[in-house]
C-alpha cells in the first residue's frame, strides 16, 4: 500500500488518508502503508509477523499511528515496526 505518487511530486503534500480496520497477515514484507508527503492516519489495524517493516514513510509525511496491534516475528531482524526514509526524526 503505497500512498503518494513519487518522492518528487510535492503536490501530494495536501493528501489526507486514513488506513483503518485492516488485518495485515503474516509474511507480508512492507508498505502497510508507506506514505510519501501528506498526512496519514493509521488506526485500528492488526499486523502479524511482517518481514521487513510495517509502516513507513519518505518525503516528509506525517503519520499518526493509533490503536494498532502488532505481533512481531521471533526473528529479531524483522521486528522493525516503522521505517523512515527522511531527514526528519520520528516523534511521539
Automatic annotation (TrEMBL):
Pfam families recorded: Pectate_lyase_4
Cofactor dependency: Ca(2+)
EC numbers on record: 4.2.2.2
UniProt KW keywords: Calcium, Cell wall, Lyase, Metal-binding, Secreted, Signal
Protein name in UniProt: Pectate lyase
Superkingdom of origin organism: Eukaryota
Entry note: cofactor: Binds 1 Ca(2+) ion. Required for its activity.
Compartment(s) where it occurs, according to its Swiss-Prot or TrEMBL record: Secreted, Cell wall
Limits of the Pectate lyase domain: 1-88
InterPro entries: AmbAllergen (IPR018082), Pec_lyase (IPR002022), Pectin_lyas_fold (IPR012334), Pectin_lyase_fold/virulence (IPR011050), PEL (IPR045032)
Family: Belongs to the polysaccharide lyase 1 family.
Major localization listed first in the record, in broad terms: secreted
Transferase listed as a keyword: no
EC class name: lyase
Keyword Secreted carried by entry: yes
Catalytic activity: Eliminative cleavage of (1->4)-alpha-D-galacturonan to give oligosaccharides with 4-deoxy-alpha-D-galact-4-enuronosyl groups at their non-reducing ends
One Gene Ontology MF term: pectate lyase activity
Pathway(s) per entry: Glycan metabolism; pectin degradation; 2-dehydro-3-deoxy-D-gluconate from pectin: step 2/5
